[in-house]
Design goal:
By secondary structure, the protein is α/β, with parallel strands linked by helices. Helix content is about 20%, strand content about 35%. It binds inosinic acid (IMP) and magnesium ion.
């Protein structure tokens, strides 16, 4: 397999800065609970959070539906958030939306907890793969239907530490 670059480090940095600015403006400097969906969103979440100057609270949730390059169809919840999100501004931060299954169920799950606002922020969106009706509020990049790795995204747990987004062929 060969690794090609899809989005370089600089492009990632600049785009994430823009997203952070947009989020800050939309929430008018009110406090935001940022929920990082582990493990893939860890790099994106930290970069995003560093660029938001209003008050934020970080929380984490672990959920997965993937095995290798194929969605397994089942969601595994292995870590839940620790904050009470009732009446709070909440942003779910995802690395990538593919079929939309993960976020479809996560959104439902969080909405039942009655947040004041619930937004979805994804670094990458593979729109053509969508099977579930889910639209992100903030998107870093729309990408083609390729299996991507790096900047948190893995292939069987490898490549997460690449500072750029690449694809395997
Ligand atoms: P969905 O539930 O089908 O939208 O899949 C979302 C999850 O699948 C993401 O949070 C990723 O963990 C994983 N995923 C989907 N596409 C890719 C990819 O191209 N590379 C790495 N992980 C991916
Ligand atoms: Mg993920």
């Amino acid at each position: 397999m060969i690794l090609h670059t899809l989005i370089n480090e600089n492009a990632l940095k600049n785009r994430i800065k823009e997203l952070a600015q947009q989020i800050q403006n939309d929430f008018k400097n009110e406090e935001i609970i940022i929920i990082c969906i582990l493990k893939g969103s860890i790099f994106f979440t930290t970069e995003l959070a560093k660029n938001i100057s209003s008050s934020i609270i970080l929380d984490f949730m672990k959920v997965s539906s993937y095995n290798g390059t194929q969605s397994t169809g089942k969601l595994n919840f292995s870590l839940d958030i620790s904050q009470n999100i009732k009446n709070k501004n909440v942003i779910i931060v995802e690395d990538i939306i593919d079929t939309g299954r993960t976020l479809y169920y996560l959104k439902k799950y969080f909405n039942e907890k009655s947040p004041k606002a619930l937004k979805i922020c994804t670094l990458l969106d593979k729109k053509e793969r969508r099977e579930f009706n889910i639209e992100p509020d903030y998107t870093g990049f729309d990408i083609p239907d390729k299996f991507v790795v790096g900047f948190g995204l893995d292939y069987n747990e490898k490549y997460r530490n690449l500072p750029f987004i690449g694809y395997l062929e």
